[in-house]
Amino acid sequence: MMGQCGITSSKTVLVFLNLIFWAAAGILCYVGAYVFITYDDYDHFFQDVYTLIPAVIIIAAGALLFLIGLIGCCATVRESHCGLTTFVVVLLLVFMTEVAVVVLGYIYRAKVEDEVNRSIIKVYDEYNGTNSNAQSRAIDYVQRQLQCCGIHNFSDWQHTHWYDKSKNNSVPISCCKTAGCTGSLTHPEDLYQEGCEALVVKKLQEIMMYVIWTALTFAAMQMLGMLCACVVLCRRSKAPTYELLINGGTQA
Question: Do the record's keywords include Chloroplast (predicted)?
Fold first, then answer.
């Protein structure tokens, strides 16, 4: 009776977890897609494409997790030994994949600051203020989105080629924080005071932390799923022996 109760409880938890796995699959794919979209906005400041490896892995893990949920539900309801074994093995593979995502996430998170420091000066030097220029679009987007101006502050614009050519003692309009601002350096109170370098680094590191915490959270759920599946498998493998002993005792 106790053994049957344990199996029933494990099956109930397992079915519930499989439903969560389906939701988790969607969340993992969303997080991976979010990293891709954000990278596209900041790719001029961080050109190491290997940063996208955790995002690729997490999307693949999401797709596998959806398949796992399907296998797990069917195998749990039918109490299929083969199905549950497959479920545990695939779940273990996804778990290992997510551990790899966490490790890579920490590695690339540490590299963000150096990458941004190396590339941001070059990007600002290539700014020409036209919409056809990719660097100009990237800088204007970042300055508006993060509410920043220049590399360390708005005075950095005075050391750029764009400033030397324009000769109007102003910064791009994207530096403006008030309506009617023209970007003139004679009115610094109308400009964003904080530089973009630190904010870009912070933004990219936050994205990596989203990936890391998402992978850790679902890795913990998968450990619980593997544990429940193993309980059902172990109990079922002992059930025939237990029934044989009961029947033998009854006949005696």
Answer: no
Enter the pTM of the model. Answer: 0.74
pLDDT tens per residue, range 53-110: 888 888 888 888 888 777 777 776 676 777 777 778 888 888 888 888 888 888 888 8
pLDDT in tens, 221-230: 778 777 777 7
Token digits of residue 232: 């059902």
Residue (of 29, 77, 85) closest to 57 by Cα position: 29
Short-list 108, 113, 116, CA closest to 51: 108
* Rg for the chain, CA atoms, rounded: 28
Q: How far is CA 163 from the centre of its chain?
A: 38
Short-list 184, 47, 66, 55, CA closest to 120: 47
Residues in the chain: 252
Q: Spell out the SS3 assignment of 166-197.
A: HCCCECCHHHECCCCCCCECCCHHHECCCCHH
Q: CA geometry: angle at 151 spanning 150 and 157, to 5°? A: 40
